[in-house]
Amino acid sequence: MRRYTFDIGGMGIKFILFDNQKKIDSQIIKFEQNERMRNTISFQIELITVIEEIKKILNLEKDNFELAILIPGIVDSVNKQVLSDSAICNVNLDLPKIFSQYKNCKKFIIENDARAALIGEYYYRNDSKIKTQIHLTIGTALGVAMIINNKIYKGNTLKAGEIGKGFFSLSIEENLPIVAYCGVGAVLFKYKMATKAEEFIDGKKAFSLYEQKDPIMLKLFEELVTGLTKLIINLDFILDYDLLTLGGGISNNEKFVNLIKAKLNELENFNYEGRILYQNLDAKNKVEVAKLKNEAACYGGMYILENGDKIYE
């Protein structure tokens, strides 16, 4: 069976076509920067615009196929609804009705993109020793998903893992969300504002500027790496996971991953006035780059199509 999987992000769509479990085609579709994207931190694009891009590919398919849409935000995979805006806005669409026009589409599923990436990575690894696994999708924003005691955890209202919307600081003065410090999109936005540039640069250009020791980018990357590392350590204190995998766009950048590993070593001791109050010596040994890297969500979509509801049991 031909299986179309579309992983929707803030800057574009990753598409992989599988023949059963075999990857046979892939493509990246980048969104154009419209006026709203040039002037907001959210990079939001309307869901209907995304759907039109997906339909351009599906319109060429003559054979029977299955379809997986992996999208950020709160997702009701049972009723096939996106329940909240994220990098994708105006999400209140009847997706089953939209895709019912394809009579050769034999199965259609949607899932949160970070959760799909976790499913892809967990099933690809197939390691019986891993009972509790966390997956961070670090891209334009930040996605988190978790398997606890071998079960995918979605939460009471399906928002488990929407950690980017939580408070970054517990202080009285600051109310910024975690994604303001732990997403690449925030780095790009802050750099654009600081330099008064006309358009956003992309993540590759940002890291190039970091390596060139651009003073603004050095500060922004220190914020990003420190924020992500503190989040990784906090998640270990909360869930005491067996494994935390790093996915999303940064997973292809070995140098960036090494910055996080170095920061994990640096922050393993909690110091106050010259004394070590407590430590976390475990987290640094439980963090790995996703084996599927930035393709994990598409593989997760493929596994869901293949296994159906059994994947959540």
From TrEMBL:
GO terms for molecular function: kinase activity. The keyword Kinase applies. Keywords: Kinase, Transferase. It comes from the Bacteria. Belongs to the ROK (NagC/XylR) family. This is Transcriptional regulator/sugar kinase. It comes from Spiroplasma cantharicola.
